[in-house]
Protein backbone atom coordinates (compact mmCIF):
# COMPACT_ATOMS: atom_id res chain seq x y z
CA UNK A 1 0.00 0.00 0.00
CA UNK A 2 1.27 3.45 -0.86
CA UNK A 3 2.27 5.79 1.94
CA UNK A 4 0.67 9.27 2.02
CA UNK A 5 3.72 10.79 0.30
CA UNK A 6 4.06 8.09 -2.35
CA UNK A 7 2.21 7.99 -5.65
CA UNK A 8 1.15 4.86 -7.51
CA UNK A 9 0.19 4.71 -11.16
CA UNK A 10 -0.62 2.25 -13.90
CA UNK A 11 -0.61 2.42 -17.64
CA UNK A 12 -4.07 1.65 -19.02
CA UNK A 13 -4.60 1.25 -22.74
CA UNK A 14 -7.50 2.71 -24.64
CA UNK A 15 -9.25 -0.57 -25.34
CA UNK A 16 -12.04 1.13 -27.27
CA UNK A 17 -9.46 1.85 -30.00
CA UNK A 18 -8.46 -1.81 -30.32
CA UNK A 19 -9.05 -2.72 -33.97
CA UNK A 20 -9.69 -6.37 -33.04
CA UNK A 21 -12.14 -5.71 -30.18
CA UNK A 22 -15.16 -6.97 -32.17
CA UNK A 23 -13.49 -10.23 -33.21
CA UNK A 24 -12.12 -11.47 -29.87
CA UNK A 25 -13.82 -12.86 -26.79
CA UNK A 26 -13.81 -10.43 -23.91
CA UNK A 27 -15.99 -12.25 -21.40
CA UNK A 28 -14.46 -13.55 -18.19
CA UNK A 29 -16.25 -16.26 -16.21
CA UNK A 30 -17.68 -15.07 -12.92
CA UNK A 31 -18.89 -17.16 -9.99
CA UNK A 32 -22.66 -17.41 -9.93
CA UNK A 33 -24.59 -16.25 -6.90
CA UNK A 34 -25.16 -19.95 -6.15
CA UNK A 35 -21.40 -20.57 -6.13
CA UNK A 36 -20.85 -17.68 -3.75
CA UNK A 37 -23.61 -18.99 -1.48
CA UNK A 38 -22.02 -22.46 -1.49
CA UNK A 39 -18.70 -21.04 -0.30
CA UNK A 40 -20.45 -18.89 2.30
CA UNK A 41 -22.68 -21.72 3.55
CA UNK A 42 -19.82 -24.19 3.94
CA UNK A 43 -17.77 -21.56 5.75
CA UNK A 44 -20.66 -20.76 8.09
CA UNK A 45 -21.35 -24.44 8.78
CA UNK A 46 -17.69 -25.11 9.61
CA UNK A 47 -17.25 -21.81 11.49
CA UNK A 48 -14.50 -20.79 9.10
CA UNK A 49 -13.21 -17.29 8.50
CA UNK A 50 -14.09 -15.17 5.47
CA UNK A 51 -11.58 -13.03 3.65
CA UNK A 52 -11.07 -11.35 0.29
CA UNK A 53 -7.87 -11.34 -1.72
CA UNK A 54 -7.02 -9.09 -4.62
CA UNK A 55 -4.12 -10.34 -6.70
CA UNK A 56 -1.82 -7.36 -7.15
CA UNK A 57 -0.59 -6.71 -10.68
CA UNK A 58 -2.68 -9.62 -11.90
CA UNK A 59 -2.97 -8.48 -15.50
CA UNK A 60 0.78 -8.19 -15.90
CA UNK A 61 1.14 -11.68 -14.42
CA UNK A 62 -1.29 -13.24 -16.86
CA UNK A 63 1.32 -14.61 -19.20
CA UNK A 64 2.23 -13.80 -22.77
CA UNK A 65 -0.28 -12.21 -25.07
CA UNK A 66 -1.97 -14.57 -27.52
CA UNK A 67 -1.90 -11.90 -30.21
CA UNK A 68 0.48 -9.17 -31.39
CA UNK A 69 -0.32 -5.87 -29.72
CA UNK A 70 1.48 -2.66 -30.64
CA UNK A 71 1.10 0.66 -28.82
CA UNK A 72 2.56 4.12 -29.10
CA UNK A 73 3.77 5.36 -25.75
CA UNK A 74 2.64 8.90 -24.86
CA UNK A 75 5.15 11.64 -25.62
CA UNK A 76 5.58 12.58 -21.95
CA UNK A 77 6.89 9.06 -21.21
CA UNK A 78 9.03 8.50 -24.29
CA UNK A 79 10.88 11.66 -25.33
CA UNK A 80 12.74 10.00 -28.20
CA UNK A 81 11.28 9.07 -31.57
CA UNK A 82 7.80 7.64 -30.95
CA UNK A 83 8.01 4.16 -32.41
CA UNK A 84 5.38 1.49 -31.70
CA UNK A 85 6.17 -0.89 -28.85
CA UNK A 86 5.16 -4.54 -29.04
CA UNK A 87 3.58 -5.66 -25.76
CA UNK A 88 4.49 -9.05 -24.35
CA UNK A 89 2.08 -8.89 -21.37
CA UNK A 90 -1.57 -7.92 -21.05
CA UNK A 91 -2.10 -4.47 -19.53
CA UNK A 92 -5.41 -3.13 -18.22
CA UNK A 93 -7.83 -1.80 -20.80
CA UNK A 94 -7.80 -4.49 -23.49
CA UNK A 95 -11.00 -6.37 -24.30
CA UNK A 96 -9.50 -9.83 -23.80
CA UNK A 97 -7.33 -8.99 -20.77
CA UNK A 98 -9.88 -10.25 -18.20
CA UNK A 99 -10.38 -13.55 -19.99
CA UNK A 100 -6.60 -14.06 -20.28
CA UNK A 101 -6.11 -13.25 -16.59
CA UNK A 102 -8.91 -15.62 -15.57
CA UNK A 103 -7.37 -18.52 -17.52
CA UNK A 104 -3.93 -17.81 -16.05
CA UNK A 105 -5.44 -17.68 -12.54
CA UNK A 106 -7.13 -21.06 -13.03
CA UNK A 107 -3.79 -22.58 -14.02
CA UNK A 108 -2.01 -21.02 -11.04
CA UNK A 109 -4.60 -22.31 -8.57
CA UNK A 110 -4.39 -25.81 -10.06
CA UNK A 111 -0.60 -25.65 -9.80
CA UNK A 112 -1.13 -25.01 -6.07
CA UNK A 113 -2.92 -28.40 -5.92
CA UNK A 114 -6.36 -26.82 -5.54
CA UNK A 115 -9.26 -28.70 -7.06
CA UNK A 116 -11.62 -26.98 -9.49
CA UNK A 117 -15.32 -27.72 -9.06
CA UNK A 118 -16.85 -29.66 -11.92
CA UNK A 119 -20.25 -27.95 -11.68
CA UNK A 120 -19.10 -24.49 -10.55
CA UNK A 121 -15.77 -23.91 -12.35
CA UNK A 122 -15.05 -20.69 -10.46
CA UNK A 123 -14.92 -22.55 -7.12
CA UNK A 124 -11.60 -24.03 -6.02
CA UNK A 125 -10.91 -26.00 -2.84
CA UNK A 126 -8.16 -28.08 -1.30
CA UNK A 127 -8.03 -31.46 0.40
CA UNK A 128 -7.34 -31.83 4.09
CA UNK A 129 -7.60 -28.25 5.31
CA UNK A 130 -10.84 -26.40 4.78
CA UNK A 131 -10.20 -23.70 2.19
CA UNK A 132 -12.47 -22.59 -0.65
CA UNK A 133 -12.22 -19.82 -3.21
CA UNK A 134 -14.91 -18.28 -5.39
CA UNK A 135 -12.80 -16.56 -8.06
CA UNK A 136 -13.63 -13.60 -10.27
CA UNK A 137 -10.66 -12.79 -12.54
CA UNK A 138 -8.18 -11.42 -9.95
CA UNK A 139 -10.43 -11.24 -6.87
CA UNK A 140 -10.94 -14.18 -4.55
CA UNK A 141 -13.78 -14.57 -2.06
CA UNK A 142 -12.27 -17.02 0.38
CA UNK A 143 -13.44 -19.08 3.30
CA UNK A 144 -11.28 -21.31 5.41
CA UNK A 145 -9.47 -22.05 8.59
CA UNK A 146 -6.85 -19.49 9.54
CA UNK A 147 -4.08 -22.15 9.32
CA UNK A 148 -5.19 -23.19 5.82
CA UNK A 149 -3.70 -20.12 4.18
CA UNK A 150 -0.63 -20.98 2.15
TrEMBL record:
Protein name as catalogued: Reverse transcriptase Ty1/copia-type domain-containing protein
Organism of provenance: Porphyridium purpureum (Red alga)
Amino acid sequence: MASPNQLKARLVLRGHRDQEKNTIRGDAPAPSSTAQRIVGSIAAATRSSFFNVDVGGAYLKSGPSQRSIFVRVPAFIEARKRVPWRLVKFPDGLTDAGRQRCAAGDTQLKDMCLLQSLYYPQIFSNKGKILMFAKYVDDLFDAGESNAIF
